[in-house]
Design a protein that fits this description.
The structure holds two protein chains of two kinds. By secondary structure, chain A is mainly alpha-helical. Chain A contains seven helices and no strands. Chain A folds into two domains: 59 residues; 89 residues. Chain A is 73% helix and 0% strand. Chain B has one domain: Butyryl-CoA Dehydrogenase, subunit A, domain 3 (Up-down Bundle), CATH 1.20.140.160. Chain B is built from eleven helices and no strands. Chain B is globular and about 50 Å long. In chain B, 39% of the residues are buried. The chains are: A mainly alpha, B mainly alpha. At the A-B interface, helix 1 and helix 3 of A face helix 3, helix 4, helix 7, helix 8 and helix 9 of B.
C-alpha cells in the first residue's frame, strides 16, 4: 500500500484499519487524508451508535428477565398446580356423565325423550354422587387457593358478622 | 466454527505469557466467584450477542442464563488466559451451536422467527439533542445496521459481533473459534464489505 493522498485507500485497506490490523502505511495515509479518515470515522460513529442502542435495549430486556426470575417461589408454588389439577378433574367429572347422559340426543331427539323415564332413580343417585364428588373437589381447590394467597379467615371479622 | 465440545470450550482461550496470565487470573477470580456481579455485568451483553447470532429472543434469554450458570459452575477451569468477557462469549457460542444443531431448534426456526424488532430497537436510541433530523438519521442507521448484520452468514456474523460489538481482539477471536487469525480476518473483510454495501454509506 503506497500512501498517496491523491489515491484514496482501497476498501481492503480501510477494512484492515477498521479491524485494527491496518498497516503503518495505511495509518499514515489516514492521518493525512481527510476523505479516508472521514469514511473510517463515519463507520465507527455509526457502529458506536448501534452498540449503545442495542446495549440499552438488551439491558432493558435483561432487567425484565431479572424481574420475572426474582418473583417469589411461594407465589407460583405447588398450590397453583394442585388448584389447576383439581379444577381440571372437576371439569372432567362434570363433562363425562353429561356427555354420556346426552349421548344420541342431538342425533335423535325422539329416542332421547323415550329414554328419559328409564334413567330416573338410578341415574339421579349416580349423578348426585358425582355432583357431591365435584363439590368436594371444588372445596379442596378453594382451600388450596386460600392457602396460596394467604386468604386466611380473620376471627374479628367473623365475630362482627355473627349475630349476638 | 471450531470443532470442539462445550466442555473443551471452557479451556479454549488465547495463550498469553505466564506472568500476564497469572495477573489476569488473580484479577478475575473474584469476579467469577460473584454470580450476581456476573449477571449484572455480562447478561445484557451476552443476550445481545446471542440474539444477533440466532435471531431468536427466547432462545437468547435461555442461552444467556445457561452461559452464566455454566461459567459460574466451571469457574475453577478459567485459566486467566483471556478476559472474562471473551471466555463467556466462547461458552455462549458453543451453547448456541449446540442449540442450533438440535432438531427442536430447526423445527421452531421454521415455525416462527422472533428476531429483534428493529422498530422497537430504534426507540432505545440515546437522546440526540433537539435535532429531529439527526434523530431520524440515527434511527435509520441503527435499523440498517441491524438488518445488514442479520443477512450475514453465521460465521461472518459471529466474528463481526465478536469484533465490533464485544470488541474482542482478533487473536482472541481466533483462539475462541479455533480458526487461524487470517481466516478471522477474511470473515471480517467479507462481513464489512457486505455491511457497508447494505448501509449504502460512502464508506
Amino acid at each position: 500500500m503506497i500512501p498517496d493522498p491523491m489515491n484514496h485507500l482501497p476498501d481492503e485497506a480501510l477494512n484492515d484499519i477498521l479491524i485494527g490490523m491496518g498497516s503503518a502505511e495505511a495509518e499514515k495515509h489516514l492521518s493525512a487524508c481527510p476523505v479516508c479518515r472521514g469514511k473510517v470515522e463515519e463507520f465507527r460513529s455509526g457502529l458506536e451508535e448501534f452498540n449503545q442502542t442495542t446495549l440499552v435495549w438488551s439491558e432493558a430486556r435483561s432487567n425484565a428477565m431479572e424481574r420475572i426470575h426474582a418473583r417469589p417461589r411461594s407465589q407460583r408454588g405447588p398450590y397453583t398446580f394442585v388448584g389447576w389439577a383439581l379444577t381440571a378433574a372437576a371439569l372432567v367429572a362434570i363433562a363425562v356423565p353429561v356427555l354420556r347422559h346426552n349421548d344420541g340426543f342431538w342425533s335423535n331427539q325422539k329416542t332421547a325423550q323415550v329414554a328419559l323415564p328409564e334413567d330416573s332413580d338410578a341415574q339421579i343417585a349416580k349423578d348426585n354422587e358425582l355432583l357431591k364428588a365435584v363439590n368436594e373437589a371444588i372445596n379442596q381447590d378453594d382451600e388450596s387457593l386460600k392457602n396460596e394467597h394467604q386468604l386466611l379467615e380473620r376471627p374479628h371479622l367473623r365475630l362482627k358478622a355473627r349475630p349476638e | 466454527m471450531g470443532a470442539y465440545s462445550s466442555t473443551e470450550s471452557l479451556n479454549a482461550v488465547p495463550r498469553l505469557g505466564i506472568q500476564s496470565r497469572s495477573i489476569r487470573r488473580t484479577e478475575t477470580i473474584g469476579e467469577l466467584d460473584d454470580i450476581d456481579g456476573l449477571v449484572r455485568n455480562y447478561r445484557a451483553k451476552l443476550l445481545r450477542f446471542v440474539i444477533y447470532s440466532t435471531g431468536d429472543l427466547d432462545l437468547a434469554e435461555s442461552i444467556a442464563q445457561d452461559t452464566l450458570l455454566k461459567a459460574y459452575l466451571n469457574r475453577d477451569k478459567f485459566r486467566g488466559d483471556c478476559s472474562v468477557k471473551t471466555w463467556l462469549t466462547g461458552i455462549a457460542i458453543n451453547l448456541t451451536r449446540d442449540h442450533m444443531r438440535s432438531a427442536k431448534f430447526k423445527f421452531w426456526k421454521q415455525a416462527s422467527s422472533q428476531a429483534m424488532d428493529v422498530h422497537e430497537l430504534a426507540s432505545f436510541l440515546p437522546a440526540q439533542g433537539s435535532d429531529p433530523e439527526r434523530q431520524v438519521l440515527a434511527k435509520e442507521n441503527v435499523k440498517q445496521l441491524s438488518q445488514a448484520i442479520e443477512t450475514l452468514s453465521h460465521k461472518q456474523r459471529t466474528v463481526f459481533l465478536m469484533k465490533f460489538l464485544e470488541e474482542i481482539p482478533v487473536n482472541e477471536i481466533s483462539q475462541v473459534l479455533n480458526i487461524p487469525v487470517n481466516t478471522v480476518r477474511t470473515h471480517l473483510h467479507r462481513a464489512l464489505h457486505s455491511v457497508r454495501s447494505k448501509m449504502g454509506a460512502s464508506l
